[in-house]
Design brief:
It is built from six helices and six strands. The protein is of the alpha/beta class. The structure holds flavin mononucleotide (FMN).
Length: 158
Amino acid sequence: MKTLCLYYTRTNKTKEVMERLAAVLGADLAEYSDGRDRSGVFGYIGACFATVNNTLPRMKLQNGVDLKAYDRVLIGMPVWVEGPCAVGRAFIKKYRDSLPSDVFYVVTHMGDRDYLTKIQAMDDLLGRPSAGQFSVKTKENDYLKESEEYAKNLSLFC
Ligand SMILES: Cc1cc2nc3c(=O)[nH]c(=O)nc-3n(C[C@H](O)[C@H](O)[C@H](O)COP(=O)(O)O)c2cc1C
């Protein structure tokens, strides 16, 4: 099964998680973004506004990535303001017709909540049921080990 791990990241946690998943799954890895510099305090505030206003920014997928070439895509994104970030949601909405039937959401967050209800609600943007969800806490947790376990389980079934 040809798999692609995609990520949007602001402070590299989601990137690390997706790198680990890709390594275990033998998948390709690529980045998507809205092209905005969201570093520092102003970037943080901008991220909050984008989420609260449900602004769906312009999306860019790393050059040369053909989504239709894959059987399975894992889409990584952080939580912003109690739900999957605006950039991740915008990506799903924009590219849903190019994504394969097997789409997994991978969401990182620093708090104890798993956000699964809100993660699953992204199926409304996808327009069909996703194949699975993985929610991982990146603060005070061995999130790379947890990610590795998730990927190992996933590969058992595919
Ligand atoms: C604007 C903003 C809002 C956030 N809101 C939450 C939140 O509501 N709950 C939570 O657990 N983490 C929240 N976080 C923390 C991130 O989800 C977490 O640190 C994530 O792993 C960062 O991923 P990244 O390094 O790939 O950007 C927020 C981060 C940002 C920048």
